[in-house]
Each structure stands twice: as structure tokens, then as C-alpha cells.
Design a protein that fits this description.
By secondary structure, the chain is mainly β. The chain has no helices and nine strands. This is Protein ApaG.
């Protein structure tokens, strides 16, 4: 699990390689990632948008931006949490993801919350010893 806290908002991510949805012979690898967003701060916030940076094993970067997550823009009061699962495919057997959620406080101010960088590892990644 990977976790990071920004302004009292803790984001925890657990990636899982999906063997049954992947096809290594066709360079198609799929991961699910489970996200928990917990408001450990003192102010109510709403998740407005997301910005993901997905880098494959060859260093190719894909950016994904949009409103909310899984079609929702959850409001988190102090002590509340929100969980969801999403996924991403890659054409390489490993990669890395990181990003930010844009939050809006009750007073209208917006701020970015870091999504911790996490590795996407499959059993098909060649191991190289230094």
C-alpha cells in the first residue's frame, strides 16, 4: 500500500495486477487500483477533479484529467472517507502512476492533494540485476 497526506487529506492506494484481463503475448497488461481518501483534517472538502500521470516501463507518459472520480465528486466532512476502484492498461509489464486530486474547501478555496506514486508490477517484468 502507498499513502500520502496533504492538508489533512490522506490518500492510500493499493494496486493489483489483473492476470485474467491481461494478455502478455499481445503486450496487454491490466491493473486495478483501490483508492481510499480520508479526511483527517478539520474542514469539509469536495473532490472536484483528478489528474493522473501514468508512465510505462519505456518511459512513455500518459496523462488523464477529468471531473471527479468514477463519476462522483464526493464531499468529505472531517472523519469521512471515500473508496473506489478503477483500473489502467499498459503495453509494458510494469509502470508507475501518480497524480493529484483537486479539492475545494467550504470557503470555495481549491487546493491539490497528492496521490502517492505507486508501482504497477506484473510477474511478467524481466528482473535485471545490477
Amino acid at each position: 500500500m502507498y499513502s500520502e497526506t496533504t492538508r489533512g487529506i490522506q490518500v492510500t492506494v493499493r494496486p493489483d495486477y489483473l492476470e485474467d484481463q491481461s494478455s502478455p503475448t499481445e503486450n496487454h497488461y491490466v491493473w486495478a487500483y483501490h483508492v481510499r481518501i480520508e479526511n483527517r483534517g478539520a474542514e469539509t472538502v469536495q473532490l472536484k477533479s483528478r489528474h493522473w500521470k501514468i508512465t510505462d516501463a519505456l518511459g512513455r507518459l500518459q496523462e488523464v484529467q477529468g471531473a471527479g472520480v468514477i463519476g462522483e465528486q464526493p464531499v468529505l466532512q472531517p472523519g469521512d472517507s471515500f473508496e473506489y476502484t478503477s483500473g489502467t492498461p499498459l503495453s509494458t509489464p510494469s509502470g508507475i502512476m501518480a497524480g493529484t486530486y483537486q479539492m475545494q474547501a467550504a470557503d470555495g478555496a481549491t487546493f491539490d492533494v497528492a496521490i502517492p506514486a505507486f508501482s504497477l508490477d506484473s510477474p511478467h517484468q524481466a528482473i535485471r540485476l545490477n
